[in-house]
């Protein structure tokens, strides 16, 4: 009978199971000794190890990767934006003054 919750095993346990299987232990012996529900886990771990080495047995991170959301502006970008705001404010003040001077001449 399969358990309803998915168990996870550490790298060390997976590596030991793979090493012992490659040394000649049977899948049934290993499954019983390590409390595995299925010999399919051993088959999957052995194939993963053969394809990718120790790295393939490492636990995978879950959830959204860090830094996946939009990051705030860096200090250099913030300074550049401040300079742009100052320039636009100065340009706006100049145009308002020009408009006021033209309005005074026509009045």
Descriptive key words:
single chain, 107 residues, mainly alpha, 2 domains, 4 helices, 0% strand, rod-shaped
Overview of this protein structure:
With 107 residues, the protein is mainly α. The chain is rod-shaped and about 100 Å long. 61% of the residues lie in helices and 0% in strands. The protein has two domains: 11-57; 74-107. It has four helices and no strands. The mean pLDDT is 86.
Contiguous low-pLDDT stretches (5 residues minimum) are none
- Main sheet properties: none
Distance between the termini: 94 Å
Query: Over all CA atoms, what is the radius of gyration?
Result: 33 Å
The best one-word shape is: rod-shaped
Could you outline the blueprint of secondary structure elements for this entry?
Layout: H1 11-22, H2 27-34, H3 40-52, H4 75-106
Helix pairs in contact: 1-3
Short description:
This protein is mainly alpha-helical. It has 4 helices and no strands. It has helices at 11-22, 27-34, 40-52, 75-106.
